[in-house]
Every structure is written in C-alpha cells, then in structure tokens.
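On clarity, I found the account of how folds are encoded harder to follow than it need be. Since the whole study asks how a given chain folds, the encoding of that fold should be made plain. The format is easy to grasp once an entry is in front of the reader. For illustration, here is how one protein appears when written out as sequence plus structure tokens.
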Amino acid sequence: MKAIWKGSITLALVSIPVKVYGATHHRGISFRLLHRPCSTPLRYEKFCPTCNREVGREEIVHGYEYEKGRFVTITDEELEKVAIKTSKAIEILKFVDPREVEPTFYDRAFYLEPQEGGERAYTLLREIMRMTDKVGLAKIAMREREHIGVIRIWGKTLVLHTLYYADEVMRPEALHIPEGIRLEEEELSLARELVKHFTGPFDIERYHDEFRESLMELIRAKIEGKEIKVPPKREVEKVVSLMEALKKSLEKKAV
C-alpha cells in the first residue's frame, strides 16, 4: 500500500509520527459511454450555451449559486487565501465513549501506521485506549479539507474514521415513523424465535457482491464470444400479514 498522508498524532505535548493509508476501496464495475455506430468513447466538453461555443480552462471560474440563476464568483487566488493550513497533525481533542458516536456519522476509514521512532508512543496510545474502552475524537486537515474523526482500535492497528459534520447528516425527524403500535405477545414470541434462529457470528468473508460477480461473468462471456444466458428472475413469495410472514420464515428456517 502507498501512504496518502504523513504527519503526527498529537495529544497535548505527545507526538506520534504516523503514515496514513486508505483502508477501503470500492470495487464496482464502471462503464464508458460509447458512440454506438463506431464504439468511440464520448468526450464531455465544457460548452457555454449563451456564447454558443466551447470554453477553455483559462475562462473558467468557480461560481456559488446563492439564489436560482444568481452566482457569486470565486477565483483560484481567492480560494488559496482561505485554504486551510495543513498542520500535518491529527490532533486528539478528547476521548469519548465509542457508543456515543452514531454510526450514521461515519464516513471513510484510514489505517494509521507508526513511522520510525513512533512505535512506543503508538503502542501506548493503542493500549490505553483499549484499557479505558475509549476512542479519540480528532481533527485533521487532509485533501484540502478539515475533517473531524475518531481514532479507534482494530486488532493491533489504529484506524482513523473521518466523520460527517452535524450539518451534513439529514435528521430523521421529518420521517413518518410509526409510534404507539401495540404488538401481540405471539408476534413478539415468534419474532424472538426467528432472531434466535438467525443469530450467528459476524463473518464478512462469507458475503460477496453477487451482482458484480454475475456482471463480470457476462462481460467475460461477451469477450470470449460465448452464448449469453440470463436466468429468469425468481418471483418473491407474497405474504399477507406480519404474523404469516413470521410463521413462514420460521418454517423455511426449520427445513
């Protein structure tokens, strides 16, 4: 892996030099849009409908639409003046209970590796967080943006999770969530039994992106010139009531 950032974790006067690595990557299949008659990849050109011509890079500025159809422009020079000052530090602000961090706020994950000379302090931070069952709430400037995040432990590794800010997360209060629904004891009993049947250890290795795998099979078949066979969609069995759904689920699990 290649480090994407180098700096230090800071806690008061303690400094731990670290390297940061991306912990995840998406493996979706991407497509290029082609011109059907000649299979040429299409280009997307910057075109001004008012001037009716293509626009060069030197004519482009950033514009913020503060009202419909009304913009304020910001130049590259102005952006540089307000750009955050990268301190090359992951500053731990405080330690918090990990259960207080709502999972909805989690964004991206990054591995933290100690640089030479930082191994002992890295180990100390990891072990004191393990002993106290806390995560570190931290601030970091990375990729032209200031992030808030948490540092937690995964096995022997410290992991930095960047978080969405509070004003970036949509609140569920506007949703119509059911309240005051009285559940029958038999429903609860059947549901409890169903959960018991479906309870097991978390093993992410067992799960695969079946759509991506099937799509790759289709692509390979096309490349090799084979006949393409698409299995028919399986019809989902219709269930009338919640009680019937619970009973049928338990029947299927028992088979």
Q: What stands out?
A: DSSP finds five helices and 13 strands in the chain.
